[in-house]
Amino acid sequence: MKHGRRLSSLSTQLWLLFACLCWPILGWAAIEPVKPGEVPVLKPGEALILAAVDTSIALDSVRLNRDGKVWGDGVMSRLRAGHNYRLYVATAGRYVWRELRPFGDFRYMLKEDEELEFQVVAGTIVYPGDLVFRPSSLWRAEVHRSNRSLAAMDWLQRTHPALYANFSFTHVGRYPDPFPAFYREKAGPASFPAEVIAATSPPAVTANRDKDRGKPEITPYWQPPQILGTSLNPAGTLLALQVRQDDTHWSVDLIDLRSSIQTRLGTSDMPLASFRWADDDTLLTSVRLSNGLNRVSVLHITTAADGKPHYSSYLLPIQGRVLDLLPGKPGHILFASQSREGQLMVHPLNVARQAAVEGFRPTLRSRINSGINDDTWWFVDGMGELRLGVVRRGEDHVLVQRQADGFKDVMVLSDELGFDPVAISADASKIYALTDDKRSQRDLVEYDVASRALTRTLYSQPGTDVHSVIFDDARVPIGVEFYRDGQLLSEYFQDGDARVAKQLGTAFAGLAVQLVERSRDGSNLVVRVDGADAPPQLYHLDTRQNRASLVAQSHPWLTAQKFAPTQLLKFKANDGLDVEAFLTLPAGQHPRPVVILPHGGPIGVADSLHFDPEVQFLASRGYAVLRVNFRGSEGYGRAFREAGHRSYGTRIEDDIDAALSQALAQYPLDASRMCVVGSSYGGYSALVSAIRWPQRFRCVVSIAGISDRLLFFTASDTARSEKGRQLAEKMMGNPSEDAAGMRAISPLYRYDELTLPVMLAHGREDQRVDFEHSRRISRMLHLAGHAPVELYFDEEGHGILDPANRSMLWNRVAEFLDQSTRP
Q1: Comparing C-alpha atoms, which of 128, 116, 244, 130 is closest to residue 554?
Q2: Does position 20 have pLDDT exceeding 60, yes or no?
Q3: Contact 798, 767 (CB under 8 A)
Q4: Which secondary-structure segment (H or E) carries 412?
Q5: For residues 522 and 239, is the Cβ–Cβ distance under 8 A?
Q6: Residue 247: CA atoms inside 13 Å, Cβ hemisphere, count?
Q7: DSSP letter (8 states) at residue 189
Q8: What is the Cα–Cα distance from 14 to 256, expressed in whole angstroms?
């Protein structure tokens, strides 16, 4: 976005004179406001524009005008924080949001963004979507359009009832939105009371309600983990931990692994964005600021005669981030900052010397990434040289090679290519990457930069996707991690590492063991251990002494809790596809009620046997929980992932149905007491299942769920870019070509078939699945006389993250399930 200033008085006079002389060229596009209750008579070629602005702060004004015209702007003035609407009479044509002015002379120029343009058709009420403004700092803001047609129609019906009744209402965008016409047809002239339109959040939950009923308390399940991050120094002697103290305080603790002495280095009122060692004695910590940049601190550690560590600390004077360490130069880093123009600047810096840090003043002229613009990141070779960079070009990110005479393109990076670089070799001649391009699964490969070709496959396992790569201190791949039967496993390339992995597998049988940190010589490891019924724990492994020691527990308040075990189910789907599922079965003699918990995504996401608070909470309430890695899920190879494309609401739900049949046949489950609960795609799946099998289930819970598949294309962050739209069309379908088919499997348009009790939960700041999804399905259920239970959160996005809100959400879900599944 651009920032400009108001023209001076003299400049304004000269501009007016110029405009008068050039009147025929500039033209006039009249946009006249319509007062509440006023009924204007439209002239031929005129239309009505319903302009809407959703802003988190008060604004002086927002302007829109006809594309290419200077005069006749529509100005929305004195906008309050929240939703603002205005109605205008305008000449048909192409219009653009032109300018947004928060206060005084400060302004954002918007007309360069084609996503903010729209077409006005004569004789209609045109709604171009809400202009959403979310500033993150004085200079940075997120500005986009999102389709909230129902909220706009509510305002129009209340403020201009005659116009609402006599004119067609159309959302204009890249894709069709049939809902306005559908809603007007079903609702007729009915107007809904304010409480239904607002759908305000219910009051807070009464404390200890569950405890009084003899049910387990909820809060411990949703309390964030105590250990938020770790960093082991290269020597393997000092382990830094980021520890959550409470909701507003975090600390950095240091453990001397030789003596087991633990020391608190300091506390902060903000969590760390990252921390890492620059050498054996120098720790770098970063805090993310509201402007999106980091503030980096340096902690220099010394050990006193008594064995206790002491430290001195100092701040980097420039905001930025640690791009990489400088190999062979302990205490030296490559630091990435931004110029005033927003260009990336990379500079070497000796962080081990306080004087060097305090005197650090990077400039655009002195940066070592000179000669190129719009670069966003760099890969560093074994000598600390910038060799391969990532450059933004429009919507693309291009990998470029730095050469003596300039820069040469290597490849365009995209999800479609299926090539994910993870590191480069010490001499920068090879790229280590994960790819499934022309392969049956995601493999670890070696790519030769000079020949622009894959030269070697480092790891491949038929039907199994590599999840992550394990590197040694020289950044050479030494192993991979992958999932099999829901369990995270590792495989190493060298015999010595493989023996250590085998020892860990024996010591923690049945649990997932994930390498978190590794010392320079590989003799000291920090591993994360957890399981479906075991919260995460951190262990230090000394390979020389063959000894594993508990370092910290991620959820110490859950150590006394007994958790339900999880069973692996393998079965064939209706079309013969091999599918896996996981059934968590609480203890008990009688058949247990069932909650089906479909995961989100749905493509490239998967359930596993890691510890899951939601699953164990439901199990603690006595529910058996079924999770299915249906087609499209991650980890099973390319063909399995692609089998999920355009299977939303159909074959995916057939897989869930087949898994449920298998579970009912093998385990003591109560088939008469079953509900479906899901988030994101899982919420959509829950609603679809309730429509497809209404006699099977007692209730359905949709959390941030899609209700209208077509709406996703005009109200989501995915659909704001061309590549995002292409990906969505590939996976979900093209609304411009198959609107009827997509309506047929959208719960919104089959609302009258949702006869089961329905609960809706959503964050109003959700950018992935806009709150409009819940607003629409709620309205239609109210219209049908089948009001849902509703729980909405003003400050939450796609996922309820605040622990208090999560506790409230799952408390309400539990109450809803208990009421719906009573014998």
Answers
A1: 244
A2: no
A3: yes
A4: strand 406-413
A5: no
A6: 7
A7: T
A8: 72
* 788 DSSP 8-state letter: P
- Residue 615 is classified by DSSP as H
Q: 681-692 and 651-666 are packed helices; what angle lies between their axes, rounded to 10 degrees?
A: 70
Dist CA 149 CA 152 (whole Å): 5
Closest CA to 59 of 88, 82, 36: 82
Q: Is the pLDDT of residue 202 over 50?
A: no
Average pLDDT of every residue of the chain: 88
Residue 486 contacts residue 607 (beta carbons within 8 Å): yes
**Among the listed ranges 262-271, 483-492, 672-681, which one has the minimum average pLDDT value?**
262-271
pLDDT (mean) for 198-207? 41
Alpha helices in 628-721 (DSSP H): 638-642, 651-666, 681-692
Average pLDDT over residues 293-300: 89
**What dihedral angle (degrees, nearest 10) is formed by the CA atoms of 733, 737, 743, 745?**
-30
Residue 69: its pLDDT value, please? 63
User: Average pLDDT in the 213-221 region?
Assistant: 60
Contact assessment for residue 231 and residue 283, using Cβ atoms and an 8 Å cutoff: yes
**For 258-276, what is each residue's pLDDT tens digit?**
888 888 988 888 888 888 9
Dihedral sign, Cα of residue 481, residue 484, residue 489, residue 494 = negative
- Which phi-psi region, left, alpha or beta, contains residue 128 (left: φ > 0; alpha: ψ -120 to 50)? alpha
Whether the per-residue pLDDT at 70 is higher than 70: the answer is no
What residues contact residue 569 under an 8 Å CB cut-off, 6+ apart? 580, 581, 582, 583, 659, 662, 663, 666
Predicted pLDDT at 382: 87
Residue 492: which residues within 8 A CB-CB, separation 6 or more? 470, 478, 479, 498, 500, 501
Question: What 3-state class would DSSP assign to 790?
Answer: strand
Place of tokens 């950044």: 475
Query: Does residue 218 have a pLDDT over 60?
Result: no
Closest to 2 (Cα-Cα) out of 143, 96, 117: 143
What pLDDT was estimated at residue 74? Answer: 76
> Order of strands across the sheet with 466-471?
466-471, 477-484, 487-492
Mode of pairing for the β-strands spanning 443-448 and 453-459: antiparallel
- Are the beta carbons of 284 and 333 closer than 8 angstroms? yes
Q: Among 176, 150, 174, 177, which Cα is nearest to 164's?
A: 150
**Rounded CA separation 220/225 (Å):** 10
Q: Exposed, middle or buried, 799 (CB in 10 Å: 0-12/13-18/19+)?
A: middle
Which tens digits make up the pLDDT trace of 30-67? 689 999 989 999 999 999 999 999 999 999 999 888 87
User: Each residue of 106-118: pLDDT tens digit?
Assistant: 888 886 677 888 9
CA–CA separation, 430 and 447 (whole Å): 5
Q: How far apart are CA 519 and CA 505, in angstroms?
A: 20
